[in-house]
Amino acid sequence: MSDAAAPDPFGTGLPLDTQVSRPRPGTVLLAVDGEIDTLTAARLQAGLDEAVDASQADGSGVVVDLSGVTFLASSGLAVLIGGARRLADLGSRLRLVAASRAVTRPLQVTGADALFDIHDDVASAVAEATGAGASAGDKQAAPGSRPSHTAAMPPGVAPPPGEVGR
Amino acid sequence: MTRADPEYGHLIPLLEEYAATDAGDPRRDTLRSELVTGFLPVAQHIARRFSNRGEPLDDLVQVATVGLINAVDRFSPERGSDFFSFAVPTISGEVRRHFRDLGWSMRVPRRLKDLHVSINGVVSELSQSLGRAPKPTEIAERLGLPVSEVLEGLEASEAYRSSSLDEMLSSEQGSATVGELVGEADAELNRVDFRQALRPVLAELAPRERTILLLRFFGNMTQTQIAQEVGISQMHVSRLLTQTLDRLRNRLDPETRVS
Amino acid sequence: MSDAETLDGMSTVEVRTSATAALIPTIRAVASDLAARADFDLDAISDLRMAVDEACATLVDAADPTSVLQCRFLVRPERIRVHAEVEAAKADTVLSTDTFGWRVLQTLADDVEVLHDAGGEGRRATVGIRLDKSAGDVPR
Predict the structure, then answer these.
(1) In this structure, which topology does domain A23-133 adopt according to CATH?
(2) Chain C, nearest residue to B185 by Cα
């Protein structure tokens, strides 16, 4: 194992990793790993902005997978709440995947959990976000219900859903 | 809805068949192999996305394949979602967990990871019966373990220890430290600004130091990889990086001191 | 269960670090550790950890860059008091209690207070936060 891999396994220089992807047409997934605090909240914001921007191209649902998050500070909560508001203005709800107390407790004790649809596993969140994304399509001029058009990969090309951005 | 992708279409009926077979069925292993082999390019594609972080691609493909096996085993066709929407997050989740574990594995022994699993196992049951979150002593009693062990297990789950204190404080921290110099909180943006600010300064460096700096921050190579590339020891690379970054800090803004 | 395994009496732990966000994770870890040893329930431990993080982040933001962040934990049975303090960037630095973060802090802790000391002859101006958190099964 490489020597510097342990100090910076995310390759970001920060104890936070964010990855935006399309696990399937109709859903944008922001996967987050590490600690969300004052040092890393801006990175979370950047990732969430990218995910929401991407979702607007085709009315996709947005899922934020926080199952790899070991700490969530108020600055991180503020980012998530801002994301929920932005999506609410656009007619949909932000879905979170939250499995550990470090994430569920702050959401619950502040009452912020009412602002999101919270799942305890990513597969169910993705499956439901796609449905929501497609049905939210009628609130805006959305091509969300045309899967063949929104596929992130051209049909017939080997691996499935590609990434958004990085 | 299942997308009839010509590349993988032939595997869909196999998924359904696999989900329907019982544990003892001899056909099960064959089906599983066929499915994993058939969907392997998906795992490889996902592994490749993480290949720029200093981990060997082979290791990542192995981890991704474990994720694929889990996805094949756990997928249930009647849930209505197509296999990819289940498998892709499952596989990438496995690879991400690998990177999280890298931050821990130097300091968190297997014993503690197992302990963490045991603790999780009893916590929700205890929460139900107590009507509130359990205390460490209650968890210890339930598991039949000394409280000190439970305390260790709880601690292990809390901190993402990607950096030792030395690494956090040293100048050779990478983008975050440099980020403080250019005044941005976001690491990605830091890298961009860093390049602009760095150009005139890079010109002042000796060729070897310049190469090492470029390899570390733009090539995203580890110290060992750089050492191999440049032909010196990893310790020497570490020392040169520290010295060079110190000089850069002073050069970029003499008023700024990173604490 | 012996004294060696949990804190039954009163203990004081003090941590001093440079006033930088990079070191707050260490202070969080101390907070969690103390609350766990004092047998706080898991939610109370999580709340204290988050409250200490919030207090420290707020103070680091208002601190003179060369300042030390000082964090003192008073561990009593059933309750932990935390007193965090930095040297202020300016003599008239005032912590805003009108922020989202402060409201979260008030939710997490049983009691929170801002402490300003304008300093004087030979004494730097300081700003601090004192918070209390109880073990968890005390009715609020």
Answers:
(1) Transcription Regulator spoIIAA (3.30.750)
(2) C21
CATH number, domain at C54? 3.30.565.10
CB pairs below 8 Å between A and C: how many? 54
Candidates B65, B88, B193, partner chain A, best to mutate (most A CBs within 10 A): B88
- Give the pair of three-digit tokens for residue C97: 């209690």
B53 pLDDT tier (thresholds 50, 70, 90): confident
For residue C97, give how far its alpha carbon lies from the nearest alpha carbon of chain A (Å): 14
Number of domains in chain C: 1
The interface predicted TM-score of the complex, written ipTM, equals 0.90
Q: What does the DSSP assignment read for chain C?
A: --TTTS--S-EEEEEEEES-GGGHHHHHHHHHHHHHHTT--HHHHHHHHHHHHHHHHHHHHHB-TTPEEEEEEEEETTEEEEEEEEEBSSTT----SSSHHHHHHHHHSSEEEEEEE--BTTB--EEEEEEEEE-S-S--
For chain A, give every domain's residue range: 23-133
In a domain, C139, yes or no: no
Distance CA A17, CA A33 (A): 5
* Closest Cα in chain B to A27: B85
Q: Which of the residues in chain C have pLDDT under 50?
A: 1-4, 138-140
Model-level pTM greater than 0.90? Answer: no
